[in-house]
């Protein structure tokens, strides 16, 4: 079945797919019944979502941020669309395409990574070269480096964004370092390569 992107959704539409969920809240309404409020998003838009007659058990089963399977409907509330969740559960790995949920870089990931390797391969100091090579040899880390976003918002907040951002600042350094003879090109390139690697673990973009 063709995916209904949230940007195309209209009041009355049924949704039954995987979405990104975040900022969940568990609250009591004026009638004393509990409900869950959260944000649902895909690569095109974000909507407020509510689940009525919710329980603490359901709330605890939903990740704070991550990919979830949702069945529900779209409603118009005070002039704004919102998603009414009827069922929610874990998203099965391999059953959906992350590119449908999180924006991705428009540049070629393989070409960008090859350029990063080329720049790092030109480092002359053998100790600095050995340090960066230890990271390059970590296949799992480099796979995450190629896929991770650089941020949740503000800049390069999409799959492949961390690699794109890292290459961009390395290219800037390569261009300006000849103007500053006192700078160590080797340390500058190594530092820029390493400066955001922690985001491969900090930012959530896999299944919850």
Report what the structure shows:
It is a single chain. With 208 residues, this protein is α+β, with helices and mostly antiparallel strands. It has 2 domains: 6-99, Nucleic acid-binding proteins (OB fold (Dihydrolipoamide Acetyltransferase, E2P), Beta Barrel), CATH 2.40.50; 102-202. The protein contains 7 helices and 5 strands; from the N terminus they run βββαββαααααα. A 5-stranded mixed barrel has the order 1-2-3-5-4. A hairpin with a 2-residue loop joins β4 (65-77) and β5. α2 (109-121) packs parallel to α5 (161-176), α3 (126-136) runs parallel beside α6 and α5 packs antiparallel against α6. The chain starts with 13 loop residues before the first strand and ends in a 6-residue tail after the last helix. The model has no long low-confidence stretch (mean pLDDT 91).
Assess the beta-strand content as a share of residues: 25-35%
What is the overall number of helices? 7
Task: Identify low-pLDDT runs.
Answer: none
Strand-pairing-aware structural class: alpha+beta
Give the SSE order as H and E letters.
Answer: EEEHEEHHHHHH
**Overall 3D form:** elongated
Mean pLDDT: 91
- The tally of domains stands at 2
Q: Would you report the number of β strands?
A: 5
Give me the Rg, rounded: 22 Å
Spatial strand sequence of the major β-sheet: 1-2-3-5-4
Features:
208 residues, alpha+beta, OB fold (Dihydrolipoamide Acetyltransferase, E2P), 5-stranded mixed barrel
Write the layout of secondary structure elements.
Blueprint: E1 14-28, E2 34-41, E3 46-51, H1 56-61, E4 65-77, E5 80-90, H2 109-121, H3 126-136, H4 139-147, H5 161-176, H6 185-194, H7 199-202
Parallel strand pairs: 3-5
Antiparallel strand pairs: 1-2, 1-4, 2-3, 4-5
Helix pairs in contact: 2-5, 3-6, 5-6
């Amino acid at each position: 079945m063709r995916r209904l992107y949230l940007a195309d959704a209209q009041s009355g539409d049924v949704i039954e797919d995987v979405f990104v969920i975040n900022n969940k809240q568990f609250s009591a309404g004026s009638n004393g019944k509990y409900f869950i409020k959260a944000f649902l998003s895909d690569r095109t838009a974000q909507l407020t979502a509510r689940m009525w007659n919710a329980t603490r058990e359901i709330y605890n089963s939903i990740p704070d941020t991550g990919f979830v399977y949702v069945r529900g409907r779209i409603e118009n509330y005070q002039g704004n669309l919102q998603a009414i969740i009827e069922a929610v559960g874990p998203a099965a790995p391999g059953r959906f395409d992350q590119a449908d949920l999180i924006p991705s870089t428009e540049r070629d990931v393989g070409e960008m990574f090859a350029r990063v390797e080329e720049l790092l391969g030109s480092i002359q100091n053998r100790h600095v070269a050995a340090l960066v090579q230890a990271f390059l040899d970590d296949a799992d880390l480099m796979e995450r480096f190629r896929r991770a976003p650089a941020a949740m918002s503000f800049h390069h907040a999409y799959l492949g964004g961390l690699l794109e951002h890292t290459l961009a600042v390395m290219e800037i350094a390569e261009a300006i370092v000849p103007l500053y003879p006192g700078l160590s090109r080797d340390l500058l390139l190594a530092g820029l390569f390493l400066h955001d690697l922690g985001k491969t673990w900090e930012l959530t973009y896999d299944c919850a």
